[in-house]
Amino acid sequence: MKIILVPFDFSAYSLAALQTAQRIGAKNQAKIICVTVIPSELDWDLLSEEARAKHSELIEQQQEAISVLPGYIKSVAPAKSQIEQVVKIGVPFEQILREAERFHVNMIVIGAYGKGYSDGNFVGSTLQKVIRFSHCPVLAVKFALDGNAFRKIAFATVFNSAGKVAFEKILPLAKVFKSSIHLLYVNTPEHFTNSSQSEQDMAEFGKGHEQFVIHRHVFNHTNAETGIMEFCDKSNIKLIGIVSGDHSHAPSYMVGTTETLIFKSELGILSIKA
């Protein structure tokens, strides 16, 4: 986790994301890229200087953000971590992902919004699109995660070959914080697996990673998302890794497990693609 990107829009959620990124960065001297986007439907990067000059209000907003950001961030989130600030104009999720590619970031830490589903802050939101299209892990938070939150990391999946690829991606974070890892399979009536088979599948994930403290759990529930939340609550776990499927071509109104957990729970949700 040497480079972390944080979308920053001056909201309390983005501040929580920045503080969480600083917590991670302080552990391994990671560089933090703080990206602020002035919203516009224009593809600013492709416009000529002449075309850009016609949008003086966007240029003024960008210059104001460039001027205000350094002092503001220093006042609300003072830290020794190296922070590079970038201010872009355009569609927020597109610019965030472009900067993630440009800087070859290892993780995006992004602020989530409040509980519940409602048009405008969930379906089609910047958060939803960043999670769906990002090639690197995305950690969504509602509150700043402190060091204790990283001491235990749950990892929920169906424990197949794709899940194992994703599992490998949480290990650098677990190593930095010396986290115990809690492998979780939620058994539901629709996707029932006998406990011995689940235990065997999870045991395969731990092979070759004996340096980590790994626990295995089978949790029975009628609903996978609710089961994950109840398990984490009972186990006092604040951070969970979820294997996110490829929803890049799915309509925004089709909501997956990762998105449901973000908006129904207070957990830090680490979305990982296989």
For the structure shown, list the relevant keywords.
274 residues, alpha/beta, single chain, 2 domains, Rossmann fold
Architecture overview:
With 274 residues, this protein is of the alpha/beta class. It has two domains: 3-111, HUPs (Rossmann fold, 3-Layer(aba) Sandwich), CATH 3.40.50.620; 147-272, Rossmann fold, CATH 3.40.50. The chain has nine helices and ten strands. A ten-stranded mixed beta sheet has the order 3-2-1-4-5-10-9-6-7-8, sandwiched between helices. β9, α9 and β10 form a beta-alpha-beta unit. The longest helix has 21 residues, at 56-76. The two termini are 17 Å apart.
The CATH superfamily of the largest domain is: HUPs
Give me the count of strands: 10
Taking Cα atoms only, what radius of gyration do you get, to the nearest Å?
19 Å
- Percent strand: 15-25%
Q: Which descriptor suits the 3D outline?
A: elongated
Can you list the strand order of the major beta sheet?
3-2-1-4-5-10-9-6-7-8
Uncertain spans: 250-254
First-residue to last-residue Cα separation: 17 Å
CATH architecture group name of the largest domain: 3-Layer(aba) Sandwich
Helix content: 40-55%
Oligomer: single chain
Structural class, judged by helices and strands?
alpha/beta
Give the CATH level 1 class of the largest domain.
Answer: Alpha Beta
In total, the number of domains comes to: 2
Helix tally equals 9
CATH topology of the largest domain: Rossmann fold
Main sheet?
A: 10 strands, mixed
